[in-house]
UniProtKB/TrEMBL annotation:
Record family assignment: Belongs to the short-chain fatty acyl-CoA assimilation regulator (ScfR) family.
Annotated organism of origin: Allopontixanthobacter sediminis
The protein's name: ImmA/IrrE family metallo-endopeptidase
One annotated GO molecular function: DNA-binding transcription factor activity
Alphabetical list of InterPro entries matching this protein: Cro/C1-type_HTH, HTH_RamB, IrrE_HExxH, Lambda_DNA-bd_dom_sf, ScfR_C, TransReg_Diox_bact_type
Keywords: Coiled coil, DNA-binding, Transcription, Transcription regulation
A GO CC annotation given for this chain: cytosol
Amino acid sequence: MAEGPLFAGSAMRRLRKREGLTQAAMAARLSISPSYLNLIERNQRPLTARVLVQLVDRFDFDSAALRENESIGGIDGLARRLSDERFADLGIDRDEVAEFLAAAPQAAAAFARMFDNAGDARAEADEPLQATRREIERWRNHFADLDNAAEALADELRISRADIGSALAERLRDKHQLSLRILPQEVMMTSVRRLDLHARQLQISEMLDPPARNFQVAMQVAQLEQREAIENLAAAGRFTDDAARQLFQRHLISYFAAALVMPYSRFLRACEATGYDLQVLMRRFGVSLEQLAHRLTTLQRVGQRGLPFFMARVDRAGQFSKRFTGASGTSILEGSGTCPLWIPHSAFERAGQYCRQLVHLPEAGAAPASWLTIARTVEGSFFDGVTRFAIVLGLEARLAGNLALSRGLSLDEANAQLIGPGCASCHIQNCRQRSLPPRGAKLYFEQLSHTDAPFQFG
């Protein structure tokens, strides 16, 4: 996916004022006309490569300042925040979000910081999880240095589907003098992986299936070989709680493991060649659906982007145990619960089958509203049948036409199921499935008639 034009009017204006220059004086130093500089500062012209080079040469300018809005997730990150139920009545669309970010990026960053720090009462109990998720989404779940390191290691090991397990075991033996042992459940008990430095062994439970076993070994490789890089990323995170920092480090370890098993370039080529066929990709790379879904949210390498999926793991009660927005910009994952009309709930009734649903969020605000969502149940790899979740993947409907799993499904918005962010936050009228009125809404009661919807509200 091609990179868009770079509009940096606010950064240019701040630089000029810092240097104490008029537009005419700065334009002369950049070898452009004052009128052209004026257009750049008003975001009516993008910043060209030639002007950027001049800025760096003449003003010792840090080009990272031109991407300052990435710290809040760009337009998608700001749109996601503005789609909160507290702003639902304002009707803020995506164009307004883009204008706000372009015209006043520092004000937008201040709003984002205030929004993130405010939280709400529901978030207090799991604040480390919320803080970790905010940091992941700040990066759009793409960590370029880890991806590059994992891909280089995969190339060095010549990892392929057929020998990934043996290649990883060989790496442990040759570089770290560790042998790999698969031990019975009565020895490992509830542990899935154990590093025994005295015996120089990485011990793995026999209860893990092959994809989970390989992934655990890859995670151990990440801890041994990428410890410094992972700790540096975590140290630079915006954490006030050590538990959140450790959760973030655990995410980065899993991220590297996935990138090692599914190296970026090879994985993206396979995605595009197969139409993101989930079953084919699982077989080709020897991974589980959950591992694959995680990886699909990370494909944001500059100049080599994949489709912007979101991913969630949902339990039978509709609670999120994992959710990654990636670069999708979706607002579906922002509530504390899920809409009972959404596909993961019916997926539990069709265990092991792929379920597809086109959904429309009338209260999406500035975020995209129409999505193709795909769900399938998975069971815990440790003790089959004890734990069961639904894995959900989503892609904006306008991008989903060539997906293997969209074949035969109409992507016309007229056929979409209306869903909300969970009953307590949803203002969709006349929903027969509603179990709660929206929080703070004024209820109305008709004395002479009664509708088939459980609540009427303003």
